[in-house]
């Protein structure tokens, strides 16, 4: 029998009840011998084609496909192979190969069943769709998705064809255009899978299901009609309108291409002429796709930064079970809620129960939306405990201080709690701008002080800065990075300096926007200019969302002599108009939305976004030159995941390279002549 590198084919014994069943295991092999994750390389696809050929020569009664990896069924195409493509034609060839192989799976002349556990993404979902049936694990961590839109491409291995046929175009387009994943129960309701069962029962479930296979799933009438030719155009136009509210076609062509691919070409990218804007060749030639693929790789790099903490000392030394959060405001309360959601015992301290109660209420509401099942909600609430007296300080493994942004108040707190902390406990601050050099003064053990800086809103923002002060030990950094990964966030190690990385780069961008506001340019026009550049939210609206009191404190901490200090934000803070959280800031907020008076009219927005973004690019150059972050790629990753900086541009330094250093330096010189020294190019430009 043929031996394959990435696949293992087994036949069940010829027992009378399960005679002739075959089990195929996907077990991607890596050169370094590691387990890692199932992904589809060209080699794995060619082998699968060989498997299909053998099965056609000697057909079993039925076939079940499993993953031999613990973490999931398959993560999709091998992203490393993507990054090695020398041109768009190689990308098209890879797409055609996947289509041809999965077509062979779909054409097998006997029942086929995909047994799905863990993550099933992209090509993994497309392989499952090529099977006649699907059974999925019932665990919360098992997800199916077609997230290709997040990489600037389309589902290219049959997903755009088979998913609408299986569950109807409306549901299918929603999944493909958002890239969101669905768990087993949701997938069953949609008709995406036929059954849901615990993974421990997979082998028996496959045998029982294939012993008497049922008729393949057909979408209900209300879903099926969305595929009818007479309805297809209507569904496509409605989908385009929805996408247009979220993404510009020139920035993100992929979602528009997904709609056209389904509507005009039946979901088959091989049928699209190479010259068509929605072709695989065109999408890979557009700058957005390589930039989004680069961001995906950067995300993996950040995840890896928290993955080897146990190597330097015993894994037990890095274990954190109990987190104590001091400060139950919006940030502190949401940090505590998130840690409890992720399985940690959390004690939350503030001056009285009245200050803690709103945080507990927000947590309960968030858990109900996210967890849904009452017993899971209750379990999370049981892990989140109010602690007015601060008893948790003496028992916890990690203290996270999230109080007012004032160095003296923070140091006084540290003096009170440090003597009570366990010898092994970490003392972390969520300060957004104060250097640890200043906060460590007076500490008996400065080596265990670290910055663990979350971004607002905590539940949505992936990045957490791990700030290394002059005295912070390597062990403290490693433990902190491991903790952040454990709570499903992306750890970014940065050196301690005013503003660290993200706020230091974001502040000149935000400040310039407020200077423009003071010059008489409307808030709506400024925000529109930023969104034309590709920011997910304009800087004036963002200031309101973050909180004007927070923005003012950070701005003062990072203010450079000679630069303007906008007066309007100070006036609003003094008037207790703090932005979204108080109902009014630069905008008035109604039902969580800013009330904008008008659009940008006919104003040329390009000079406005150039003026706002170049100070951020300049500061990013300075941060890399000073070694605040290890390299330019990690700088870009921090700004993208910490602020949402125009993802399709790949980060401020990638934008600089793509646009051209000389062109942007000329823009900087022109702006310096118009507006002064804040536009002087940093010395780091010379060595880029």
What's the main sheet like?
Answer: 8 strands, mixed
Beginning-to-end CA distance, first to last residue? 56 Å
Beta content comes to 5-15%
Order of strands in the sheet with the most strands? 12-11-10-13-14-15-16-17
Question: Total number of helical segments?
Answer: 28
Structural class: alpha/beta
Number of DSSP E strands: 19
**How much is the radius of gyration in Å?**
27 Å
Shape estimate: globular
Fraction of helical residues: 40-55%
Q: Please, what is the average pLDDT?
A: 93
Low-confidence stretches: 309-317
Brief rundown of the structure:
This protein is of the alpha/beta class. It contains 28 helices and 19 strands.
Report on the architecture of this protein.
The protein is an alpha/beta fold. The chain contains 28 helices and 19 strands. The strands form four sheets. It has an eight-stranded mixed β-sheet. A hairpin with a 2-residue loop joins strand 18 (589-590) and strand 19. Helix 5 (159-167) crosses helix 6. The chain is globular. Residues 309-317 have low confidence and may be disordered.
Lay out the secondary structure.
Layout lengths: L6 E5 L9 E6 L15 H16 L4 E6 L4 E3 L4 H5 L4 H19 L5 E5 L2 E3 L1 H8 L2 E4 L6 E3 L13 H9 L1 H10 L5 H7 L4 E2 L5 H10 L9 H4 L4 H16 L8 H13 L14 H6 L2 H18 L16 E5 L3 H12 L3 E5 L3 H19 L2 H10 E3 L11 E4 L5 H11 L8 E4 L6 H4 L9 E5 L9 E6 L5 H13 L3 E6 L6 H17 L4 H11 L5 H8 L1 H11 L9 H7 L14 E2 L2 E2 L11 H21 L5 H12 L8 H8 L1 H15 L13
Parallel strand pairs: 2-3, 3-5, 4-6, 5-7, 6-8, 7-9, 10-11, 10-13, 11-12, 13-14, 14-15, 16-17
Antiparallel strand pairs: 1-2, 15-16, 18-19
């Amino acid at each position: 029998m043929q031996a394959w590198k990435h696949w293992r084919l087994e036949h069940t014994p010829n027992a009378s009840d399960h005679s002739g069943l075959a089990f195929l295991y996907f077990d991607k092999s890596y050169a370094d011998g590691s387990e890692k994750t199932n992904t589809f390389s060209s080699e794995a696809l060619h082998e699968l084609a060989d498997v299909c050929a053998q099965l056609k020569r000697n057909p079993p009664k039925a076939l079940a496909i499993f993953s031999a990896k613990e973490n999931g069924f398959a993560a999709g195409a091998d992203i490393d192979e993507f990054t090695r493509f020398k041109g768009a034609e190689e990308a098209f060839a890879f797409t055609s190969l996947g289509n041809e192989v999965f077509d062979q799976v779909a054409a097998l002349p006997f029942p086929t069943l995909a047994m799905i556990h863990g993550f099933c993404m992209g090509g993994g979902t497309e392989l499952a769709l090529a099977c006649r049936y699907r059974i999925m694990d019932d665990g919360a961590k098992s997800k199916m998705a077609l997230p290709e839109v997040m990489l600037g491409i389309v589902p290219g291995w049959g997903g755009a064809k088979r998913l609408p046929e299986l569950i109807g175009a409306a549901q299918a387009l929603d999944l493909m255009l958002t890239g969101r994943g669905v768990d087993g129960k949701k997938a069953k309701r949609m008709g995406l899978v036929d059954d849901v069962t615990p993974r421990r029962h997979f082998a028996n479930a496959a045998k029982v299901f294939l012993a008497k296979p049922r008729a393949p799933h057909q979408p209900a009438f209300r879903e099926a009609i969305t595929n009818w030719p007479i309805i297809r155009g209507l569904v496509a136009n409605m989908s385009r309108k929805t996408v247009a509210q979220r993404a510009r076609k020139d920035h993100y062509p992929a979602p528009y291409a997904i709609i056209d691919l389904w509507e005009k070409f039946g979901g088959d990218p091989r049928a699209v002429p190479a010259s068509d804007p929605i072709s695989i060749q065109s999408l890979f030639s557009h700058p957005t796709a390589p930039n989004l693929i680069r961001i995906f790789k950067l995300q993996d790099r950040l995840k890896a930064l928290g993955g080897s903490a146990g190597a330097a000392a015993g894994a037990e030394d890095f274990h954190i079970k109990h987190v104590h959060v001091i400060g139950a405001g919006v940030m502190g309360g949401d940090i505590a809620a998130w840690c409890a959601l992720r399985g940690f015992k959390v004690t939350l301290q503030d001056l009285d129960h009245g200050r803690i109660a709103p945080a507990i209420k927000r947590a309960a509401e968030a858990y109900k939306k996210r967890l849904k099942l009452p017993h899971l909600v209750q379990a999370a609430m049981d892990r989140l405990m109010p602690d007015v007296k601060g008893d948790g300080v003496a028992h916890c493994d990690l203290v996270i201080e999230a109080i007012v942004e004032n160095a003296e108040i923070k140091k006084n707190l540290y003096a009170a709690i440090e003597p009570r902390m366990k010898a092994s406990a970490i003392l972390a601050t969520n300060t957004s701008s104060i250097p640890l050099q200043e906060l460590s003064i007076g500490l008996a053990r400065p080596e265990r002080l670290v910055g663990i800086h979350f971004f607002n809103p905590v539940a949505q923002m992936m990045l957490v800065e791990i700030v290394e002060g002059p005295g912070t030990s390597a062990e403290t950094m490693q433990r902190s990075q491991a903790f952040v990964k454990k709570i499903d966030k992306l750890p970014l190690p940065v050196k301690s300096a005013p503003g660290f990385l993200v706020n230091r780069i974001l502040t000149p961008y935000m400040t310039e926007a407020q200077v423009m506001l003071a010059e008489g340019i409307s808030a709506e026009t400024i925000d529109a200019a930023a969104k034309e550049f590709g920011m997910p939210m304009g800087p004036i609206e963002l200031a309101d969302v973050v909180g004007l009191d927070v923005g003012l404190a950070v701005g003062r901490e990072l203010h450079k002599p000679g630069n303007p200090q906008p007066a309007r934000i100070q006036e609003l803070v003094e008037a207790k108009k703090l932005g979204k959280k108080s109902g009014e800031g630069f905008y008035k907020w109604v039902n969580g939305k800013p009330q904008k008076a008008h659009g940008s009219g006919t104003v040329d927005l390009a000079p406005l976004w150039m003026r706002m973004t170049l100070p951020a690019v300049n500061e990013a150059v300075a941060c890399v030159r000073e070694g605040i972050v290890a390299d330019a790629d990690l700088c870009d990753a921090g700004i993208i995941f910490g602020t949402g900086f125009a993802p399709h541009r790949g980060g401020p330094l990638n934008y600089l390279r793509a646009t051209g250093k000389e062109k942007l330096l000329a823009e900087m010189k022109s702006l310096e002549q118009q507006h002064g020294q804040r536009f002087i190019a940093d010395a780091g430009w010379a060595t880029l």
